[in-house]
Q: What sequence folds into this?
């Protein structure tokens, strides 16, 4: 995808659901002003959705997406998945984007696991692990998610935010829903470090473990992500 097509191809939608109230932000094109209506309810059970229409193919596109999503924990989780998928296609490109969305203490563990999960011609590999995290994807349909690509995120109901001297920020514990694992809620830790505009992932082993294989009698083959 060329940079000139950026504003035509990366329409994205951020939807936050706060109890009975909703907060909706829709981006027709990157750079458009956010239109939103936000409620006041704060709860450990906050459920949020984040959607993107396409996977970026350049660092510039990723940075533009980060500018719109990176200021929220759930947006940071989406960016992690996007960067992981970019890494599957191009390790150098993906690593650069992962470095923008991860703490320095987490980056090497992420790329190390992805090197294992994205090996070719290996029964251990799970090239569809990112797709498995998107709404609608499941082993029985070849991990082909709904479009736009959407994730469902909530605060971890068992943990409270923790101040981290090591990371120079407050760690927030969130969970990502997926039908790709028997334990559907996958933990992801994010932190907004002092002086930084964006959240970064500080720990995410739960989305780097093998998801279930595609069912042998799945209704369709995995089509990949666009």
A:
């Amino acid at each position: 995808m060329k940079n000139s097509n950026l504003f035509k191809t990366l329409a994205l939608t951020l939807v936050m659901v706060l109890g009975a109230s909703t907060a909706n932000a829709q981006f027709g094109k990157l750079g458009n002003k956010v239109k939103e209506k936000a409620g006041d309810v704060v709860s450990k059970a906050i459920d949020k959705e984040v959607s993107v229409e396409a996977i970026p193919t350049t660092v510039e596109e990723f940075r533009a997406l980060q500018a719109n999503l990176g200021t929220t924990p759930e947006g940071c989780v989406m960016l992690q998945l996007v960067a992981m998928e970019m890494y599957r296609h191009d390790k150098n490109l993906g690593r650069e984007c992962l470095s923008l969305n991860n703490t320095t203490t987490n980056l090497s563990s992420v790329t190390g696991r992805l090197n294992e999960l994205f090996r070719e011609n290996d029964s251990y590999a799970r090239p569809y692990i990112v797709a498995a995290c998107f709404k609608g994807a499941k082993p029985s349909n070849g991990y082909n998610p709904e479009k736009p690509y959407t994730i469902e995120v909530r605060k971890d109901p068992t943990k409270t935010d923790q101040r981290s001297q090591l990371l120079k920020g407050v760690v927030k514990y969130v969970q990502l829903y997926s039908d790709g694992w028997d334990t559907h809620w996958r933990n992801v830790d994010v932190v907004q470090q002092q002086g930084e505009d964006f959240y970064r992932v500080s720990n995410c082993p739960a989305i780097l473990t093998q998801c279930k294989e595609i069912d042998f009698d799945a209704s369709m083959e995995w089509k990949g992500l666009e």
Summary: Helices lie at 6-9, 59-69, 73-89, 91-101, 104-117. Strands lie at 12-18, 21-27, 47-52, 149-155, 162-164, 169-177, 185-193, 200-203. Residues 73-89 form the longest helix (17 residues). Residues 3-207 form one domain.
